[in-house]
Design goal:
single chain; 186 residues; mainly beta; SH3 type barrels; OB fold (Dihydrolipoamide Acetyltransferase, E2P); 3 domains; six-stranded antiparallel β-sheet; five-stranded antiparallel β-sheet; 16 strands
């Protein structure tokens, strides 16, 4: 059990059987009445965000969430197959569960899977990945306007905006949090 006074950003708590991740919290001591803690939380299963108030002397149950390093093996229809390298246990996760991150996942990529009661509740891919551009409009001489960009299709099917000088066949680094181009990689 964790006191609401001991909460930190990023920890997981269990409320009414659901697992929530603390996004923000604020301890408030009004001039009149009891102190309270306002917590902004995100449900790890469906992603909705709520704002709740708790008395400062309340306790919340710590969620039994742990990270497991996994390897993305392959895509099987609409399922993504992951393997724990230490136990060779495999997990099949639906495309809906993975979300937009699926557009930046390459076979043999290392990821972190969040588990609660041995059940996957979340997936964290690396912050930056290197992928190859398979389709984009060619750049041409003189087209060097600062800040201009064009769409580029990646080997995984994702599309990002890249500078005009980047061509097909180029490996680029992408920030997976913002889904944006970072730099060319040789």
């Amino acid at each position: 059990m964790a006191s609401t006074n001991d909460l930190k950003k990023g920890i997981y708590v269990e409320i009414e059987g659901e697992v929530w991740r603390v996004i923000e919290f604020q301890h408030t001591k009004p001039g009149k009445g009891h102190a309270f803690v306002r917590i902004k939380m995100k449900n790890v299963v469906d992603g909705h965000i709520v704002d709740r108030k708790f008395r400062s002397d309340e306790y919340l149950k710590d969620a039994d969430v742990f990270r497991k390093n996994m390897q993305f093996l392959y895509k099987d229809g609409s399922d993504f197959v992951f393997m724990d390298a230490s136990t060779y246990e495999q997990y099949h996760l639906n495309e809906d569960f993975i979300g937009d991150d699926a557009l930046f996942m390459k076979e043999n990529m290392q990821v972190s899977m969040l588990l609660h009661n041995e059940k996957p509740i979340g997936l964290e891919i690396p912050v930056a990945v290197v992928l190859k551009i398979v389709k984009t409009e060619p750049g041409f001489k003189g087209n060097t306007v600062t800040g201009s960009s064009k769409p580029a299709t990646l080997e995984t099917g994702g599309v990002v905006q890249v500078p005009l000088f980047v061509d097909e066949g180029t490996n680029i680094k992408i920030d997976t949090r913002t889904k944006t181009y970072i730099e060319r990689v040789s």
